[in-house]
Amino acid sequence: MTRATEASVVNEFTGLLPEPPPPFRYDFPGDDPQDPHPLLTSWVPAGARVLDIGAGTGTLAVTLRDRKGATVVCVEPDSDRAELARARGLTVHVTDLDTFAATSPEPFDVAVLADVIEHLPYPGPIIATARRLLKPTGHLLVSVPNAAHWTIRASLLRGRFDYEPTGLMDATHLRWFTLASLRRMLESCGFAVEDTLGTLGNWHPAYARFPWTLIPGRYRTSVLRRLVRRFPSMFGLQNLVRSKPVT
Predict the structure, then answer these.
(1) CATH code at 69?
(2) Rounded CA gap, 52 and 23, in Å?
(3) Whole-number mean pLDDT of the chain?
């Protein structure tokens, strides 16, 4: 992230929430097989050299290290989040991606932008920089909230678009992506999309309300899994994409 981006992230909730969102609100890995971290991890080869861009507190990096034996290098501009990531034994560069790239690091097998580009006013340059840091055979993995999720559609039908401290309507989101618009963004930056997935998100508060409460709890998650697989653009809470550089 550029330094201008770092400054904007600090203030971008102003006027949207009564108080700043908790800084460590996403400091959890997500253990369901259809959560973002397990799905992203499934795309990473064992022993890969991975660049985690905007690594936050390092929860994904720890999963990649522990489950795949990956060598993970984290770039995180927020010093507080970076400190927590370092306490977890991770290699963390407290800087923006452009500055890190200028150090001419060894190319990576995989670069990850996990819930990052929706927070940036200009996602294109950071994607292009990630491309330069990949091996020709490498992959870029991206996850973003799904702007076409049924809960957002339902809110818009009611004339509502209310920001929240966390989740799909996180007040620090500056860009909104459907799977189609994310694909176009990556292709415009020199990537070819190889695979896509939708995440489950069964923790969403909407699933604890009518009409979902009509489905017994022991069956509800199973129903949601089927809906995400069959209709990912509507029921996938997040869109995940695996892409490769086009030579």
Answers:
(1) 3.40.50.150
(2) 19
(3) 93
